[in-house]
Write a structure and sequence with these properties.
Blueprint lengths: L4 H10 L5 H13 L17 E2 L5 E5 L7 H4 L7 H13 L19 E5 L12 H17 L5 E5 L1 H15 L16 E4 L2 E6 L4 H4 L6 H15 L1
Helix pairs in contact: 1-5, 4-8, 5-6
């Protein structure tokens, strides 16, 4: 069977070595490993998007976690943020199961595709502006190929402003100042055919402190589902 354009893009993402700092860091983490995962083979490469090619919902995060996606090879898989995200997607009917442990765990998404602004795990979870911009082209290509997307849930302010910036690249001049619009949990912004919905990132920093609760995350995906009716 011939490769789809999306599969070709995913292969291009995996092969990327454009950012020396990120290449060095992701590979160092994959060599050194965390003690709890010392018997596992780390992925140690950029992470492609994952989900339903016909999706109307796109979920966008910041970057893979060093011992999450960078270990497992699938976005939001094998870390606490993923535990929260996939449980919420399951409750909303976008996932067939509430857990995400490894690439072969049987998880499938329905009407949903998940991606990230930056495809490599960055040191201290903080990519540089140049590293962010190096990845913009991948997100542009994904949005071009995911033709049915109507709603984009942005996990965190970084994703909110990066997605707006990416849409500006695709749709200029209609969204010329879109990336200056204030981020907030539950914030909504219509950019052309896309409705952006903001959510606090399901990081431990937010979930442990109660800044983000399950009910708050559920409301975001209910809003997305309501828009797609």
């Amino acid at each position: 069977m011939p490769k789809t354009a999306l599969a070709t893009l995913q292969e291009k993402i995996i092969a990327c070595r454009l950012c020396p700092r990120l290449v060095s860091w992701r590979e160092q983490v994959a060599r050194d490993k965390r003690a709890a995962f010392r018997d596992q083979d780390y992925w140690g490469k950029p992470i492609p998007g994952f989900g339903d090619p016909a999706a109307r919902l796109l979920v966008c995060g910041l970057a893979p976690a060093a011992h999450g996606g960078n270990r497992t090879g699938r976005v939001f898989t094998g870390d606490r943020s993923g535990d929260w995200l996939y449980a919420a997607l399951y409750r909303a009917g976008f996932a067939n199961q509430p857990t995400s442990v490894h690439r072969g765990d049987g998880l499938t998404l329905k009407d949903c595709y998940i991606t990230a602004c930056v495809r490599c795990a960055p040191p201290a979870n903080k990519p540089t502006t140049e590293e962010r911009d190096n990845c913009l082209g991948f997100l542009v290509e994904e949005l071009t190929l995911l033709k049915n997307v109507q709603v984009i849930v942005c996990l965190g302010a970084f994703a909110w402003h990066t997605v707006a910036r990416t849409l500006r690249v695709r749709m200029a001049p209609h969204v010329e100042r879109a990336d200056t619009i204030r981020f907030g949990h539950g914030a909504q912004m219509q950019l052309g055919k896309y409705l952006l919905i903001g959510s606090y990132h399901p990081s431990q920093q937010n979930t442990f402190t109660g800044r983000l609760t399950e009910a708050m995350l559920d409301r975001v995906f209910r809003a997305a589902k309501e828009h797609l009716k």
